Q: What sequence folds into this?
């Protein structure tokens, strides 16, 4: 009997029996599941055990003025099962004033810099991250520029950076 | 700062070994980083104890700009991400946009995009391997590679007028169709390039100095590569057989015969070999795609309302005129769903994907780029620990870090 890999639906069914009902949808053949922030880490750890072994990306979307949005930030975890070439998108929604989610660096080393980038540009705090510093913006920077309430032109930071001259370096 | 010497007999013998470490700041402006990135190295004599990579020197807010430019305008910014292979970025961006909009390309367009993406891969690997050679002392090899890059630039110039920042693709098509001259130039390249590739392999693959400098250096194990989300040649050199062209065939790859190049050693030399072999496979792909290039329109039809109609259609049909005007107006263009999707291609450097969120307008609500360089650069400290300072350039070169893509 030929081997048939478990379909994404089977994985979702197993996920629902374990973590309660999860909201899932399909768009252009891509399956997305929405999981609560409280169990996000457990779900991702379980998914890693069930074959989704490659973390493709961790990113975030700020739904500040998005039509019909109910939450402010939507984290995106893109997973791939390299054995079966299936993809799964895990969405985790968090809100102000303290958007926090548990870090997955202990599951995938690659999440280290991806989470640092999300912290840097969106201000989502990842608890348990070993080294949550800014990645692309300078340390002194205070804002989180990919938030929708941050203007494209910036807030003048660029012109007010301290200039280090050769004498003062 | 003074150079520490390890004196095991003097009064300092009991001092902590950390007292003998010294810190070297490598970059952000250094000829061997090739781009603007910085490494803070902790050295014990010549041995690297630890490395702290730092990035962000070229951060220009490309993802923020992506929220303000339309789907067609943003392609100019993607050129500037991985500027070693801009055509691949163009293809990746519009592949993601078309996934969101649900556009089915014409067969001719998929073949054309396949050809240019593979030419971009050859040009990237030539530069990457050339730079590894250059940094380990093989200057001639680098020039051989760079000359062939010029030939590819000439092809792109004939194709779309731009050599470097091509901005070639459009939503639902490409900006220019292949002309007979372009096809002739690609055919010439297909004929002449294998000879240069043979020369390059003869120069370096069995070169004693090069092999000693790269073999066993910067070893990335399969598990580390998997855990660190490595993709592309870096992952394939560590024994991961993942290649999106085979695993999730997009464009015309399902029709074409080629092999996925893998190695198991995971060191700099394996990454070099994988890239050399991939160039040969890319040549096979280009040759097959060029000979089987379908006839017919290159852009999607007028009824899809995405690609500008040809001038002949605009001047001679009412549908063409209406479509041209509507696409030129800011509020009458594409129909974008309030949805989000992710689509990736196998770029020369690894999986290059875009997570695009649409909000009904012609600009993306969010245009996340999944850059392979970031994940590869994060692997750098674990690859360099225990090696010498001179190995830094070999490892850095073999990871092919492009700072513009790193920082965006």
A:
């Amino acid at each position: 009997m030929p081997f048939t890999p478990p379909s994404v639906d089977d994985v979702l069914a197993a996920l629902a029996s374990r973590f309660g009902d999860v909201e899932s949808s399909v768009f252009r053949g891509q399956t997305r599941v929405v999981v609560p922030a409280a169990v996000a880490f457990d779900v991702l750890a379980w998914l890693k055990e069930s074959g989704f072994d490659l973390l493709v990306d961790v990113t975030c979307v700020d739904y500040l003025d998005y039509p019909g949005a109910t939450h402010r930030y939507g984290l995106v975890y893109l997973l791939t099962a390299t054995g079966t070439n299936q993809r799964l998108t895990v969405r985790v929604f968090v809100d102000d004033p303290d958007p926090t989610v548990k870090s997955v660096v202990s599951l995938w080393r690659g999440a280290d810099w991806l989470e640092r980038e999300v912290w840097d540009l969106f201000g989502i705090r990842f608890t348990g991250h070993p080294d949550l510093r800014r990645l692309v913006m300078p340390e002194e920077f205070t804002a989180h520029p990919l938030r929708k309430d941050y203007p494209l032109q910036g807030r003048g930071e660029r012109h007010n950076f301290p200039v280090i001259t050769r004498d003062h370096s | 700062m003074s150079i520490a010497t390890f004196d095991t007999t003097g009064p300092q013998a009991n001092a902590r070994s950390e007292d003998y470490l010294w810190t070297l700041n490598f970059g952000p402006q250094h000829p061997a980083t090739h781009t603007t990135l910085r490494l803070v190295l902790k050295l014990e004599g010549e041995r690297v104890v630890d490395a702290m990579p730092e990035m962000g020197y070229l951060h220009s807010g490309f993802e923020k700009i992506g929220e303000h430019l339309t789907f067609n305008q943003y392609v100019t910014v993607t050129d500037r991400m991985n500027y070693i292979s801009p055509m691949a970025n163009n293809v990746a961006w519009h592949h993601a946009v078309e996934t969101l909009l649900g556009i089915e390309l014409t067969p001719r367009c998929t073949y054309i995009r396949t050809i240019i993406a593979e030419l971009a891969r050859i040009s990237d690997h030539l530069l990457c391997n050339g730079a590894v050679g250059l940094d380990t002392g093989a200057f001639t090899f680098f020039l051989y590679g760079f000359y062939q890059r010029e030939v590819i630039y000439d092809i792109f110039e004939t194709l779309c007028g731009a050599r470097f920042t091509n901005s070639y693709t459009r939503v639902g098509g490409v900006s220019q169709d292949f002309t007979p001259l372009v096809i002739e130039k690609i055919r010439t390249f297909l004929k002449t390039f294998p000879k240069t590739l043979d020369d390059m392999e003869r120069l370096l693959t069995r070169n004693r100095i090069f092999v000693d400098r790269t073999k066993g250096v910067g070893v990335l194990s399969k598990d580390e590569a998997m855990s660190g989300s490595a993709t592309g040649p870096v992952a394939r050199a560590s024994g991961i057989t993942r290649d999106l062209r085979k695993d999730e065939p997009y464009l015309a790859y399902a029709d074409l015969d080629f092999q996925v190049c893998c190695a198991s050693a995971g060191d700099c030399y394996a990454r070099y070999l994988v890239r050399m072999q991939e160039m040969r496979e890319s040549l096979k792909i280009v040759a097959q795609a060029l000979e089987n290039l379908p006839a017919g329109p290159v852009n999607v039809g007028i009824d899809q309302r995405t690609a500008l109609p040809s001038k002949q259609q605009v001047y001679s049909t009412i549908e063409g005129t209406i479509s041209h005007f509507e696409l030129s107006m800011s509020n009458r263009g594409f129909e974008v769903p309030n949805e989000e999707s992710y689509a990736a291609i196998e770029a020369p450097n690894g999986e290059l994907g875009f997570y695009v969120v649409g909000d009904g307008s012609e600009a993306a609500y969010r245009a996340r780029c999944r850059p392979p360089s970031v994940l590869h650069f994060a692997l750098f400290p674990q690859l360099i620990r225990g090696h010498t300072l001179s190995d830094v350039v070999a490892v850095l070169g073999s990871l092919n870090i492009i700072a513009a893509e790193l920082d965006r």
Summary: Chain A has a mean pLDDT of 86. Chain A touches chain B at residues 27-28, 30, 53-57, 59, 61-62, 66-68, 76, 78, 82, 85, 87, 89, 108-114, 117, 121, 134-138, 145-146, 150, 152 (CB under 8 Å).
